[in-house]
Amino acid sequence: MTSARPAPHALRRLAGAAGAILIGAGLTAAIAAPASAEAGVGYVRLAHLSPDTPPVDVYVDDLGGKTKGIKLDAVPYGVVSDYLSMKPGTYAVSMRKVGADAKSPPVLTEEVKVTEGSAHTVAGTGRFADLGLSVIDDDISAPPADQAKVRVLQASVKAPVLDIKTTGGQEIGAGLKFATTSNYRDVKPGNWTIDMTPQGGSATKASCKLAGGTTYSLFVLDGKDGLTTDLKVDAKAGEITPVGGVETGAGGSTSGTSIALIAGLSLVVLAALVGVGAFGLRRRARRTW
C-alpha cells in the first residue's frame, strides 16, 4: 500500500497555518506575560520613601549565592520600582552612597525572605537621621470583580499625620503617621477623588481611577508644592506583573517586558522560518553613613 503525500498547495496551507499560529502565540507572548505563568517565584519591589535622604544606589543580593545580584543606580526619593520576580530564598537589600564601591559597607542593609507566591515592598523609610529599611508585606490576592482594594503608604514628612478618605466619606487611612502603612481596604471601583487632610490643616485632593478586581498601593509623598501621590497596582485579577529578575548581573535587571518581548519575537521568527521552509512590616537599620 502506498502512503498518500500531501500536495504542494496543501503543504503551503499547512505551513501558513502553522506560521499564523506561531505568530499569534509570539505576539501574545510579546504583549503579555502574566505572573501566573511563573511558577516557583516570589516578588519584591524597591522604594525610596525618605524625604530628606539623598539618592542612593540599591543592591539586591542572593545570600544563598544561587543567583546574581542587581543594582539600581541613584534612586531618588519617591521612586517605587516594579516588582522583580525572584526565586525562593533569602536576599539582602542594601543601600550605598551613589557611586560607592559595591564592596564597601552599605549604609543600610536588610534581609527579605522570599517564598513562592509571596510579595514584599522593601523601602527606605523615616527621616535621614533615623533612616531604616522596612520590609512591607504586600497582598497580591484579587478582590471580587465589583470591588477594588487599596492601602496607603504614608511617606510625607510635611504632613506627618494624615486622615485619608474618599470624597464620598469612605475612610482609607485614619491618623496615618509618617513612615507607616495602612491596612488594605475594600472600595467600590471607579473614578475617585481622595481627600488627604493633615492635623489642623486643609485637605489636599488627588484623583485616582480604581478598577474592579484590582489591588493597589497608594504612596503619599512630599512634592514641591505640597502633597503628591503615586498609585501602584499590586495585583490585577489575581496576577502580578513583574518586570525583571535577579539573575541579570549587578549592572541592573533585565526588564520582564523585554524578556516577554524576546520570547515573543523568537516565536515570530520561528513562524517565519516555518512559512519559508514549508515572564508585616519590619524595620532594622545598620548605619555606616
From TrEMBL:
Domain DUF4397: start-end pairs: 43-164
The organism's place on the tree of life at top rank: Bacteria
InterPro entries (UniProt xref): DUF4397 (IPR025510)
Regions that span the bilayer: 259-281
Key words, A-Z: Membrane, Transmembrane, Transmembrane helix
Protein name, UniProt field: Uncharacterized protein DUF4397
Organism name: Asanoa ferruginea
